[in-house]
Amino acid sequence: MRFAYGATRIVWLVGPYAIKVPRPRPIRPFVRLIQLLRNKQVGAQLRTYDENRALGALKYLLAGLRANRREFRISQGGLCSKYRLAPVIKQMAWGLIIVQERGLPLDSKTDLSDHPLWLEMVAEAKGEDPARKQFALFGTRPLLVDYANPELSVFDQAAGSR
Ligand SMILES: Nc1ncnc2c1ncn2[C@@H]1O[C@H](COP(=O)(O)OP(=O)(O)OP(=O)(O)O)[C@@H](O)[C@H]1O
Ligand SMILES: [Mg+2]
Description:
By secondary structure, this protein is α+β, with helices and mostly antiparallel strands. It is built from 8 helices and 7 strands; from the N terminus they run βββαααααββααββα.
């Protein structure tokens, strides 16, 4: 049993399961908000979450919950085999908890270039190393375990509204 940490979610890896819960963000967002205010970037940053700044702030604070709900909807949309995604087995408490199949860490030699979303993930994560962190090995197959980012527009239809 161990824990892994993403920017928006904490992942409890136990037996064959990866249990994802939103990361509490009470301090980080305020530090970040102060930095953004200093740099006068706050409007632009919040608008990456929503055109409306107030809604953007709310979506930012709820990012982990929204990621869980989006991942579950995409998985339920029957896209796991086409896009090689790790299936989400169950959602509980409106997305406060999701249970995903657990994979093993990739070794540094695993080739991801033939994964259908590899190039999108590199573009979204802005680099190969951060993109690799979003995959895990299931047997010999690498599957994408984090497909919640709204920038992955291939899933817009399956995921419904942002
Ligand atoms: N199904 C899984 N099997 C094995 N490990 C996993 C699984 N899901 C997540 N992890 C591990 O937990 C980490 C964080 O999970 P995830 O990427 O889903 O969270 P996040 O908060 O959305 O991440 P990000 O920081 O990319 O926004 C992953 O980088 C990976 O190491
Ligand atoms: Mg991630």
